[in-house]
Amino acid sequence: MNQEARIYIKNLRLRTYIGINKDEILNKQDVILNIRIDFDAGDAVHSTDISHTLNYRTITKQIIELVEDNRFSLLEKLTQDVLDIILAYPVVSRAEVEIDKPHALRFADSVSVALIGRR
Predict the structure, then answer these.
(1) Following DSSP, what letter does each residue of 10-54 receive, concatenated?
(2) Which of 41, 60, 61, 96 is deepest in the core (most CB within 10 A)?
């Protein structure tokens, strides 16, 4: 049975090298991730077995490793790489990733890039 479900991962705060300026290349900066994952939870709604659902902890660990262990020149590339991790799971039908870079612009709280992927 197809049962559409949605997982939200809100305000995942990580640090990475992001940007093209010398200071950005030399120093890690904060990034804030907000993620929405739509998936088929047909098996999960009738089970208590973790193998019957999309394990958001596993996905989050993969994202943390990607973000914290790499360098990115562009926010768009980082956002796409995170989206690719999520869409690698066959049960995912749609995902949206928004990544904020706090204090990227003077007088602005942050700058963000959002990408949506569909299967």
Answers:
(1) EEEEEEEEE-SSHHHHHS-EEEEEEEEEEEE-TTGGG---GGGS-
(2) 41
Right CATH for 4-118 from 3.40.228.10, 3.30.1360.120, 3.30.1130.10, 3.40.50.150: 3.30.1130.10
For residue 4, what are the CA distances in angstroms to 14, 25, 44, 57, 116? 29, 41, 11, 19, 17
Neighbouring CB atoms inside 10 A of 19's CB total 19
User: Tokens for 22?
Assistant: 């010398």
pLDDT in tens, 38-47: 999 988 888 8
The C-alpha atoms of residue 36 and residue 7 are separated, in whole angstroms, by 6
pLDDT in tens, 17-60: 999 999 999 999 999 999 999 999 988 888 888 888 999 999 99
Angle at alpha carbon of residue 28, lines to 24 and 29, rounded to 5°:
80
